[in-house]
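The step that takes the researchers longest sounds almost clerical: writing a folded protein down as plain text. Below is the pair of lines this work produces for a single protein:

——
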Amino acid sequence: MSDSANGQHGKGGHEVVDQLRQEFIDELVETLQSLDVALDALRNGRLDLVKVVTDCRRAAVLFRGQASNFAMHQLATVAHRLDEYLANAPTGAPPPRMWDDLQRFFDTMTRLAVSGTAAAAESDPASLVRKLPVKLGFDLGDIEIRDVEVLLVMPHGAQTRFVERELQQCGYRVSIMPDTLRAFAMVVETKPDLVIISAMMPDLEGIDLAVALASMPSTRNIPLAVITSLDKDDDTLKQLPARVPVLYKGASFADDLFKALDNLFLI
């Protein structure tokens, strides 16, 4: 009797999760359709750009968290990239590429949500993120965008924006993750071509993350670098594998970065 009751309870629990997951998918599809309508209204001058951008970012943050709860990791990654894409959106006239870029985000998220595990199985996460649009807020100009994915595991701030800009000038696609625990999963999933980690981070220290990534069979071949303001003789840095370059904040940073990129065969 007890075993039978436990079995029914377990089945009921799975059914509840499946129902909640389907409700999330339905809500996501409906929201993306509404955003698509708003995008068309914006294109025709009937809506304000700031409002549409705010609504898109709000939806992206919400979807990222909910998708992670349902183990829809690729969908969560695309939602994170959509939020990043719009982080530096202009307040004036949107760049011409914005229409097609947002449509690609919407279509990709809809496909991953509706097709579920089938779409996830067909999409290699590393290839998926490289097909997503390059962020707004960066003038592509004559810079050739290279198929090099760089993940910055750093807190948001002036230093991070500076590092991002330096890498963008090299034509790299740059993503930022201010949370080391989430960054750990992102590296395992998307396999970036380079991970630059701030030595001092909340929760899990950046040094610990670098040591872990350098040791794991699935990530040890991914190039890493650590950025820090610590003294070169600080004992904390001695924990790093010898092959992990250290980028020191200050006057030598640009030279350290160029040397690291050169040694890692990324330039």
About this structure: The chain has a mean pLDDT of 88. Residues 84 and 135 are 7 Å apart (CA to CA).
